[in-house]
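Lecture 7 notes. Example A: sequence first, then its structure tokens.
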Amino acid sequence: MKKFLFHLVIASLVFACNQPEKGSPFLIKVDPTLASDLKDGRLLLIFSDKRDQEPRFSISDNVGTAQVFGMDLENYQAGDVIKFDTDSFGYPLKSIQEVPEGEYMMQAFIIKYETFNRSDGHTVKLAMDQGEGRKWGRTPGNLYSKPISVRLKKGATIELTIDQIIPPISVAEDTEYIKHIKMKSEMLSEFWGRDMFLGAHVLLPEGFEENPNQHYPLMIFHGHFPDDFGGFRTSPPDPDLPEDEYSERFGIYGYQKIQQQEAYDFYQKWISPDFKRFIIIEIQHANPFYDDSYAVNSENLGPYGDALTYELIPFIEKEFRGIGEGWSRFLYGGSTGGWEALAAQVLYPDEYNGCFAACPDPIDFRAFTTINLYEDQNAYYQEGEFRKTLRPGHRDYLGHVSSTVQDMNHRELAIGGPLSRSGEQFDIWQAVYSPVGDDGYPKPIWDKKTGVIDPSVASYWKENYDLRYIMERDWKELGPKLEGKVNIYCGDMDNYYLNNAVYLTENFLEQTQNPYYKGEVAYGDRAEHCWNGDPDLPNYITRLRYNTMYLDKIEERLLETAPAGFNQQNWTLTKN
């Protein structure tokens, strides 16, 4: 067992004769020096049997997850002792009464909420990104107690003191090749009723400063919140990296060294004389619901699609000499980034010249992971006349299931409650795709406890965000604008069953006429999430090569569509 890195304190146990009102066995105090700006939030109570990491980092969809319960915190006053509501919903055990007696590591955590007075007339309380990418366990300003060792025993009271605060993050600094920008979005600021910002990490081409009259195509690498530009390194791998460093995800040793070598190799290509010259950006668009916006307009998140396409991208192109026309912009990414790449291409067909969508989040809601939103009545169960079976949510390449759709959603429900505030996967899908409910929060696609689907919400999702349906519905208009621009890649054993929606989308694309879609759909044999199109190399390598692996296809596209003045040799446009 690894060395226990955090401070241990034995909790004081007060027996039944001194139990608080209403029988709550858990008392939470907040250090007065940290309570001045605490008003609303979500209070988590976390139990874990792990000694090598804090309980807040031990909650997962896997069978080895920590136990978490959550309750809303409203109008907190400094000095209040919080009596944890023992009726609070939990994951994986639903009730505190179900937790067996025994020894646990225990921690209390507060996710702070801020109040937003939106332009749609709704007032909502949500967790604001603080520059970290809307990750509640690491959000600057959130509060927590030191993990303590407790013995949970019937009739005992446990007291926890929240006396820790997550510090601010460090901001990435500019380098010769990588620049960082942050701009106020007028569109988003108007929607949210406060200043809202978009950011990006910009990788500039070799010779950018020496060639002030050259303008460049733009490659937009969509994905989850990046704290800096990834996969680019101007020095060889660190020689002191441990050889026994092990990647659980890929089952190999020395993966950190592999990553650094790939990053250095990319730099060597980037500066070589025969490499194509273009700009790459990674976008920061974290918001009160998630680490990114899904790059589309949304009733709940606001006009992120318009803000990115008509505010941020033109700003970058003006600042760093992008060509600034739709034929010169390309999109790629994996998972969430794969969905965003395809969505931006479909919804803004004239503004981009091609997308490469790898392992995209569900692009056909008839296969929303393992759920058909239009025909199934329950998201959690397959139901027959005499029995029902839980729907799988995560598998490995052999098909072994490690969690269910219900597991994933109940974890989110415990962390964030019923209002899409967990900052996790199913909640952000709901926040992006759903209409606003009467309470100002996203209208649920299904009951978070039971899984019962709301057909009216599913219909709204279909008309606005089912990408296959939108392409099929509008192909007469969209087809000529998307011809040659749609490319999709997915492993046929994607861990989250995302390949099922790709199959359905491919069926439509292959039947298109006037015009035929003229793109590519490909599958990786037994490949897991997130396969991105190379059948010859393992996923742990190709996932590090997004910025180079589609260049041949992009070159073909530019040969077909770029104007005569575009230099195909080094992908630049000289303007006098």
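Example B, a different protein, same format:
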Amino acid sequence: MSQSNWRLMPQPPEKAVRQLTSQLNINQLTATIVAQKGYTTPEAAFGYLQPTITQLHDPMLLHDMDKAFERLTEAAFGGEKIVVYGDYDLDGVTSTAVMVEALEVLGADVTAYIPNRFTDGYGPNVAAYQRLIAEGAQVIVTVDNGVSGHEAVAMAMRAGVDVIITDHHELAPTLPEAYAIVHPRHPDGHYPFADLSGVGVAFKLAQALLTDAQPVTEKSELPTELLDLVALGEIADMVSLTDENRTLVSWGLKQISDSPRPGIAALLKNAGQVADQPINSETVSFKIAPRLNAVGRLGDAKLALDLLVSQDDDTAVNLATQVEAINAQRQEIVEEVFGAAKQIALSDKYHDDQVLVIAGENWHRGILGIVASRLVELMQKPVIVLSQVDGVYKGSGRSYGNFDLYTLMGQYRDLYDTFGGHASALGLAITPAHLTSLQNQIKQLQPLNIAEKEVNVNMMLSAETMTTASYDALTLLEPFGTDNPQPVFGVQEPKIAKAATMGTTNQHIKLTLANHVEAVGFNHPEWASVVAHPQNISFAATLGMNYFRGQKKLQLLLADMTMPQVTDNNTHKKFFADVYKFIYANQDLNFAQNLDKIAKQLQITKTDLNIMVQVFIELGFVHVVDGGFVKVVPNAPQKALTMSTTYLKFLANR
């Protein structure tokens, strides 16, 4: 490992940093990061650090907003039956909640419909629309979907039911013939900000409805009671946290912190959130979003909607308990499918594939995207994971680094039943026969330009300068997320007092620095060899805070770790390190049954592999259990390889 994939960002002019420091009363570290983000004048920096309603755009600038406003106002005051048709992920669920609550304020006769991932699929569904119309729907409002629903929308419009589409997804050359299409990137529109999420677009419609389409001049005029929902959906959908999204999310997080809805409060309690712990984008990304998304992944997302709109504490606690149980089930399923998919990914058949297309039987379709993401981290290449359902393989793909997986896989459109997505993520359906053809064509690809993932480092710091005060100063830059990343700092060879692994399979690592600050790396078993020799290590990390048993403690989160390059005369030590890392990463792999395959993958002989495992056993680093599984001994004492008799014999025979 080296720092070749680190990109040290340009340092801003000292004059600009001094000006920001003095005029905005912020410290030098914060001022430097702000200037690096492009806010080099006090006015621009203040607007970034203190987002206000003046940064929100007029909702009437959105395409067809005037038509949507007039039709929904007419329907609400005329007693027509309105159905809000949402989506099963958190952006879709929060979009639904925002639209329903806004229409209820107007006194509308409104109900919500969340499609089921497995029976309805994504977006407008003809059969679902027919049922809704048969039940009396007179206006259908789509949120976080609709621009790909030509057939269902046309059917509804022919039946005399007006369909108003609010969406943010990619626009096809031909759009549905809807009553109105509200979309920030509509080709005939002129909206000044293109990156609203589904809930962001829904909120702009709610803003128009609840302010009577008048520009907002005061905070009291804005429907701020909906901004907590907006923050959840926008963070979960990973939209750009710039421009008005930054305002919407900042205010929404503050609302959750000051007066959380009963459902959100119950979720946070189940997630272990403590009283003095701040509510930020990380809270949503790691505590709230996975739980609510789990509901739609495994079943009916209406439970998530019911929880978010609940006004009763007891009901919210009951619903949150159900959500927690579903999330626990989701975690178990992910581990089971990931284990099976990993065995396939590591097999000889896929060893030389530049893009992995892995298929299984009866894997739960709702979690394939999560499994693909984890395999990408493990294999360091793009991965597509599919499961056969009713004779067709369906699944999700995730890219690696900046590689455009969507464009590559789009070359094989003639093989797919369905295909969609964007550069970094996609979904597809394919028959078994076509899957075989796809996998064969993937194997014949010319070398692809899949670069190692870059780590943007804001600046190099000493470990001693990374303090609680530094963390507190950087919270001014929240909320962090897409296009507003958390600052990353490089630390060159700090003194490490202790190194240990964590987790059920020792997949996490914890370094205790000489100044007692801890640095943790999650789901990086390949770093585990550092435990035996934690010297001359450099790393890149973000600053975080650990809240445990009533104590608040600075904690660094490792983004990358590097070790000195191995010299030629120590090549054998590199082989030992590679084998050690492989063992850490694959403790659920039976070595006895797969010795030939493992040796081939590591490009060493089977004899040498056996010797290396025996050396680790002698040194107390590993032990063999259950007829061939090699398990790492947690926190084994550091020992030199030369303390092993087998290792000395190995050297003598070289």
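Note on Example B: The first helix runs from residue 14 to 24. The longest strand covers residues 551-562.
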